[in-house]
Amino acid sequence: MKPLSERNPIAIAVVGLLLLALIAFATFDSANLPIIGGGTGYTAYFAEAAGLQPGNEVRVAGVIVGRVTGVSLAGDKVAVAFRVKGAWVGNQTKAAIKIKTLLGDKFLALDPLGTRPQDPSQPIPLARTTSPYDVTQAFNGLGQEVSQINTVRLGQSLQTLSAAFSATPPYARSALRGLGSVSRAIASRDAQLAGLLRGARNVTGALAGENENFAKLLSDGNLLLAELRQRQAAIHALLTGTQALATQLSGLVTDNQATIGPALAELNQVTTVLADNQANLTKALALAGPYYRLLGNALGNGRWFDVYLCGVIPKSYLPPGTGPKSGCEPPKP
Length: 333
Known about the structure:
alpha/beta, seven-stranded mixed sheet, 52% helix
């Protein structure tokens, strides 16, 4: 092989640039690679998108197995593209858009059914897909529609209609008068109803702004439940061990009851004797202290006893002032 210095530098540069471009493309499009990518791509048709967005989760039995990659309009239906990795998708699989949180987050739920794998080129038809009913969007639409109604004109129209039908039978007049009363009640409460709908819209907006906090709260709740589940296992093991220990102690007491009973009876007799002689024991301990102190003094000067003999030498043989004044007292008290 030729050394690198002898090769054409232009060809080397072109090949290097092509390799760098290929590596960059593989890096940015790694989710679509066949082995390390995000899985197999599928498409499902829905009657409406129901707020589903690219990036939402794809779940099977509550487990995340992929992500939604695209939501587009396909004629009179909505085509939802998604990828699934590590899960089996059958040819009778059902797909449903479900609500993840109370704030309106959605996810795509799959029910893998069928006897053969689903062909990725064949979309899941409308007959096997369902969409949820979004209550928040319905309330927002109601607020917009009600805000555009001229309730004063509506009340005047109903009153005019009631007057025009004044010559009709009594039941028709009563019905129209009831409609007029309803229109007047609605007109009198128009401001309050509009304020209520505005407040509901503000509340939904505030909740949507706190979506990340709610998601984090739910995630922390999952961690707390997992920790409690682990602690539950530890507490169960502790209670089981305590029960086993109690069983062993009960068996030990039962096996040694013949020995423990007499021993406790003898111990009771010993404590009774000690209680009866408590005064003597107290006096003996009080006298033992001075006795052992004097004994220590007698033996504290070496390997002999320090003693004092009184009366061996007559007082007349002692120098004046050296003997005891009276009796047999030691010269040094």
